[in-house]
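During the reporting period the student researcher (J.K.) took over the structure-prediction task from the postdoctoral fellow and processed the backlog of single-chain submissions. One of the processed entries is reproduced below for the supervisory committee.
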Amino acid sequence: MRAVVQRVKRAQVDIGDETVGSVERGLVVLLGVGRDDDEDDAERLWGKISRLRIFEDADGKTNLSLADVGGDVLVVSQFTLFAACKKGNRPSFAHAGAPAEAKRLYEAFVAHARRDVPRVETGRFGAHMDVSLVNDGPFTLWLDTDEL
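J.K. obtained the following structure tokens:
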């Protein structure tokens, strides 16, 4: 699994004229599921994200976790995180998970987040979404379970 994690002041996901998810201070997680990923990857990745100390304390140091600040989480499926761009100019998505399995693991990741965080919002798996956010910092991290 791969994730782009952004510390945000606020964020939302719209599909057409409908807002399907929105959060205030917290994290946006763009989540990609690879073809070799499993439930353990979902749990391990969420565990890492939930414990990241990327929020500032009173001294301006990044010493606080999501739980420490009572932050929200917005999870958005993002299969393009598995794009391979080495050959040609059209990305290949051969390493992305098959849609049914990717959806199952995306939902497992969201379930892990909801176990720990009072407010977890999502986009809609497989939909064309407009994601808007105010990145706080900016502070953006890229995580891959193959490297955790």
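The committee noted the following: The longest helix spans residues 99-116.
J.K. will present the remaining backlog at the next meeting.
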